Amino acid sequence: MHPYDVLDAITGLVDKSVLARESGPTGTRYRLLDTLRHYGLDRLRRLPGEEPAARRRQRDRMLRRATAYERAWFGPGQREIVARLRADQDNLRAALDFSLTTPGERLTGLRLAGTLWFYWHACGAPREGRHWLDRALAANPEPTRERARGLWIAGLLAAATHNLTAGLALAQDAHTLARDLDDEAEAAHAEYVIGVITLFMDDLPTALKHFEASVVRGPVPGQHLSLYGLDQVELACALGFLGEADRAVEVCERARRMCELHGEEWVHSYVLRVLALAHTVRGDWRRAEHHARHALRLKLAVHDVIGIALTLDLLARAAAETGAPERAAVLLGAADHTWAGIDRDRWGSAALKCTRRDSETRARETLGQPGFRRAYERGLGLDLAQTVDYAVHDRRHPHRPAHPRRPNAGRPGSPHATTGIRLTRRETEVAELVAQGLANQQIADRLVIARRTAEGHVERILGKLGFSNRSQIAAWVAAQR
């Protein structure tokens, strides 16, 4: 078939409202309306073997795409990769669910979940990643390379979402298995996770020795350059926490050159964040602010929530030290709001908590309790994009959200939800059921309404919130909670 024939066919289907056309950062995409998609699925299920065959083809396509993205991750295309993976969230979830619920497909499910490590960790999805990795590891107890990889990724994500002890145990299991399998690359990846957890558990001398050895050894065959770059970042971070600013800067400059050579931005953002840390040790607050702002720009591009939270803490400290107590209080509020989705206790790290405490003490002393509280609550009211915009542009008075948070904010249907959109009571119920993964017929059965009515509610919710698919509704509901 000629490409123009395909285009004509698609245009005709859009005109007949069989397909919906959606524009996004990755170009134009097409999707079936929910009603027709469910109809097609029902028809497919009536043909013996056709549904699993179709799902397997879809899963294999997602695996090929994820593998290509992982290979390209340490390079100039990271922003496009993130945009494409976000657009494919529903496809990835369908592929993972099929693999982990179908006999004979579970190892491939673990391989897919493990291949996406960079997405789970770097792009603000550690909890979803942990969900899939836990399921995949439980379904694949055999000692394979895929399991070794899955274990260290699960350890990294567990640590990122507040459980350092469990994360360390998983990473150690991964290292043992990788050694048994004689897999140098996965052993090196597991060593990175062991080292970074050791660092944030405040065993700085051990972490320093660990990363000194890793950096001196250099990347082993098959090791992802992103993780070798992070070895250098964590070495510099340990040096900074120990007060060795000059050595930290030297390590960062080497890592920075490697990132620039490859056109890489995510690891580069961490290099800049640690450069900012080193300059705070030197007391060069202006240079620390410069590097931290640059880091935030890069982190927001890939939605690195953990990196943004870490960097906001440094910027708050710099503001407090340079005579900008109100800005420091706003940034502390924004930082605490960002950390709330990760770990309010900042993983229990003494170094991180000390930075925050010093900033708050200085800001409170200057502003007084009422002034500090007002500025702090302004920061709490900023969403992620507003936070980075304020932090990067050094505004003394951040733009307030269109609907400031109130005690009941954050629930779907609340007049003060972060989107500023009011859902009806019924739409709120439907949004909650969508977030639970229910299809339209299941929603209709649960609420005792017609399926067409349920479909109408879903379409209105998508329209009100400016979303294009059900996974965005689910993510929105989770965020409001």
Q: What is the strand tally?
A: 2
Number of H/I helices: 24
Helix content: over 70%
Order of helices and strands: HEEHHHHHHHHHHHHHHHHHHHHHHH
Distance between the termini: 49 Å
What is Rg? 24 Å
Q: What topology, given as strand order, has the largest sheet?
A: 1-2
**Can you tell me the residue ranges where pLDDT is under 50 for at least 5 consecutive residues?**
396-420
Please report which band the strand proportion falls in: under 5%, 5-15%, 15-25%, 25-35%, 35-45% or over 45%.
under 5%
Largest sheet: 2 strands, antiparallel
Shape: globular
The whole-number mean of residue pLDDT values reads: 89
Class based on secondary structure composition and strand pairing: mainly alpha
In words, what does this structure look like?
By secondary structure, the chain is mainly α. 74% of the residues lie in helices and 2% in strands. It has helices at residues 3-15, 34-45, 50-72, 78-87, 89-101, 106-115, 117-122, 126-139, 145-160, 164-180, 184-200, 204-217, 225-241, 245-262, 266-282, 285-302, 305-321, 325-340, 350-380, 384-393, 425-435, 440-447, 451-465, 470-480, and strands spanning 19-24, 27-32. Strands 1-2 form a two-stranded antiparallel sheet. A hairpin with a 2-residue loop joins strand 1 and strand 2 (27-32). Helix 9 packs parallel to helix 11 (184-200), helix 16 (285-302) packs antiparallel against helix 17 and helix 22 (440-447) crosses helix 23 (451-465). 43% of the residues are buried. Residues 396-420 have low confidence and may be disordered.
